[in-house]
Amino acid sequence: MSATAAQTRIPARWRARYRLTPWWAKVAFVWAASRLVTTSLVLAMANLQEANAWTGARPRYADFANMWDGRWYNIVAIGGYPPVLPVTPEGQVAENAWAFMPGYPAAVRLLMEASGAGWAPVAVFVSVAFSLGSALLFYRLMRRVLDHGTALFSVVLFCVAPLSPILQFGYAESMYLFFLTLALYLLLERRYAALFPVIAVMALTRPSGLAFALALALHVAYRWITRGRDPFPPRERVLSASVAVFSGIMGLAWPLAAWAVTGSLTAYTDTELAWRAPYIGYQELVPFTAWFQSGVWWLGMPLGIVAVLALILAFTMVMFTPAVRRLGVDLRFWVAGYALYLFAVFFPQSSTFRLLVPLFPLLGAVAQPRSRLYRAGVVLLCVAGQWGWLLICWRVDGADWTPP
């Protein structure tokens, strides 16, 4: 059915009412509808959940939404961080709270103090509230580079994406995406001074300061190169370079804080390395090696190396496709900067899907085809992906080695 034929089936007054509906109401409707779908899937999965280390069988929603790392954030909110790093019987640094930044648990703790409610419901509320804010900001971000219809469908994909259940769990992702989206919007608006407080909160919510610093450095370099056709006045040069340096400093702030409290220069990195020890044992952090180590662990030699090189090539090709190029240089700078950061420090395993969420501006490229059949198919695949992610990564089956 053509778009014109479809429009003739819709009463004119409905079409007029839709056109007059403000953008924020459309986004809020998309968000609310998506939360109904996701919540239904989560409740269905909770009904299948057996007793585990975090909950009893068939837990309530708030309890089910606070498993896994939600317990670590709870520990941070209630007890803070250990002044002495815990160690394993072999003398290696064990998993501990320093891996989890203070932004999200601090926000939840403040609301807990104000409301008198417990961790689980407040954590869910904070995540849900930030998810709505993120959806509204994401629309504004996409409208900087796309038309209204495509920007709104980008929001649809953001709200129904396979990892979207995390937006209403006791995790920091929802709050982090809010500040990341705001930072990207301010960057596109070239409101450099306003970026300082946003980056400060963002970098203490999820590790991202160094990746954003790289994106900002690329932005400054690009503006300098193109200053002949796009003026780059001295004030903006100073502000943009300063905020890039500030983002880099904030990227190092949490490791420095862990050092100051524990007395160990490598407290933060040693803590992060503890999470990959079950796969490859305790090793030193050598930048740009973890993906190859993971490839070999999962696929063996030489297929693991070949697979990683193929991923690098595929990602590079995607970045130069017409749909991604339409997103503009600054959003591509962020995607490239964050991808390089992950490649430098992250060991791929089941949490990789969650760590890829900050690449969400690429949804603007996925949203560009206008075929109704294509768009309906993508939405259905995303909803099916939610169930798959909940089943594989979130639900605990008693012998689980796929943490979210």
Automatic annotation (TrEMBL):
Subcellular location: Endoplasmic reticulum membrane
Keyword annotations: Endoplasmic reticulum, Glycosyltransferase, GPI-anchor biosynthesis, Membrane, Transferase, Transmembrane, Transmembrane helix
Keyword Transmembrane helix belongs to the record: yes
Glycosyltransferase found in the keyword field: yes
Any single GO BP term: GPI anchor biosynthetic process
Transmembrane segments: 23-46, 119-139, 151-172, 192-218, 238-261, 296-321, 333-353, 373-394
One annotated Gene Ontology cellular component of this protein: membrane
Taxonomic lineage from the root: Bacteria, Bacillati, Actinomycetota, Actinomycetes, Micrococcales
PANTHER family, per database record: GPI MANNOSYLTRANSFERASE 2
Principal place of residence: endoplasmic reticulum
GO function terms (MF aspect): alpha-1,6-mannosyltransferase activity; GPI mannosyltransferase activity
Name of the molecule in the record: Mannosyltransferase (PIG-V)
Protein's membrane topology: Multi-pass membrane protein
Pathway: Glycolipid biosynthesis; glycosylphosphatidylinositol-anchor biosynthesis
Top-level taxon: Bacteria
InterPro entries: PIG-V/Gpi18
